[in-house]
Design brief:
CATH class of the largest domain: Alpha Beta
Number of helices: 15
Number of strands: 21
Helix content: 25-40%
Structural class: alpha/beta
CATH superfamily of the largest domain: Spore Coat Polysaccharide Biosynthesis Protein SpsA, Chain A
Radius of gyration: 24 Å
Distance between the termini: 57 Å
CATH architecture of the largest domain: Alpha-Beta Complex
Shape: globular
Bound molecules: uridine 5'-triphosphate
Length: about 475
Amino acid sequence: MVNESTLRNRLAEHGQEHLLRFWSDLSPSQQQELAADIASVDFPLFDRVMASLGAHPDDLDPDAFGVPHTLPERPTADLASTFARARELGQQMIRANRVAAMVVAGGQATRLGYDAPKGAYPIAPVSGRSLFQLHAESILGTSRRYECRVPWYVMTSTANHADTVELFEKASFFGLQPDDVRFFRQSMMPIADTDGKILLDRKHRVALAPNGHGGSLTALAENGMLDDMANRGVDYISYFQVDNPLVMPVDPLFLGLHAIERSEMSSLTMSKADDHEKVGHFVTVGGKLRVVEYTAFPPSLIGQRMPDGSRKYDLANIAVHVLNRGFVEGIVGDRAAVALPWYLANKSAPHIDLKTGRRVTPRKPNAIKAEMFVFDALALAERPMLLRAARHERFSPVKNPDGVDSVVSARRDLVRRAAAWLESGGVTVPRDPEGNPDCVLEISPLAAVDSEMLRERGVGGLSIEPGESRLID
Ligand code: UTP
């Protein structure tokens, strides 16, 4: 039995008694659901985060900004032997089962407006493979190529956990060993109105949202995933986001450079597409590597140019990182020390109107959502390393149904990359007068995870007709 007065007293300590406004209208099972939601809230943490309202962590002084050092996409002559050694070392690290893949897939995919986990979205241009399947097969292809195990840690959130696990089970884990796929759930934070009063999503449900991809670090620890990694001998975590179908989940060169540079956390970066691309920027602030989101980037710096005319603040964050397991253990070991900053975003959130009891869906932002971002761990890392990568090879996020960063642009970019790989293997790809592939192409990650693997496989004899749809698997 749920004790109403205990609940009421607990909520009163934090000024949130209104969450029980409809208590007497609820059935016993609804009362239990509401009590469970309330029990899941870390009120002291929530109070601390709300107290910082107005003190945004990105209130940064533009004069303190600098441009970080990067390793180039292709090695210059003086780096050629380091890159060759790094690739070899990265392959050894993978072969020795020291590398795990980790995807963050706990987001709400609000912009895409898809009624299932975002990872289930059928993105591949010919086969309709989902984002999850592409990543799974890429990991499987890597483990076959290096004859090793690559465990995959999949972060979900309360809203999509059961659906995600079910879709993996139905797909027989896309060929991966079930024991090598570990699901873990991130924590949720309450959504509040602009006065810090927590909203009700239903009369019997608190409005909760995932606590941001920065929540992945504590979630790894809280769910025993760091111990699981230690038991398997995993030392390196290759981190990526579910919505980037071009990502290479396990990249030997990136891993090897990370190790050679003795970095604790490293990131891939690429030139911004244009001044106003909606990505975070890698900068140094007071000498420390940081990512500053586009929403918080000082406008006076956006258009700045170098003497040669190139963009000064040009390094986009594409959310591909390598983290040492020991580094993550160190920063989550004493949870108080993690102290990743919280970001408070204004959102429009459906909620129960406390006066009428009706559920309303405001068009304008009415609510505050608190999130942590994983890139803030860079500031805690020794010798963080930044490696440049080619956009057309590695990045095309699925955020929207169409337009920029969309299903349409990601499919286009998958076809363009497949065409380039095939051409590098000696295949003639029909192209239209603008130079775009005049065909729909898809390369299964089981056939090749990069152009080198495709060339090794030998595709020179293939012929592709204009207008054809072709799957290479
Ligand atoms: P986004 O911030 O783009 O969010 O997440 P989203 O859920 O995909 O889409 P919108 O903003 O609601 O439209 C980038 C990546 O981080 C993950 C997402 O699943 C995606 O892979 N993420 C985001 C989490 O895992 N947890 C979070 O709390 C937030």
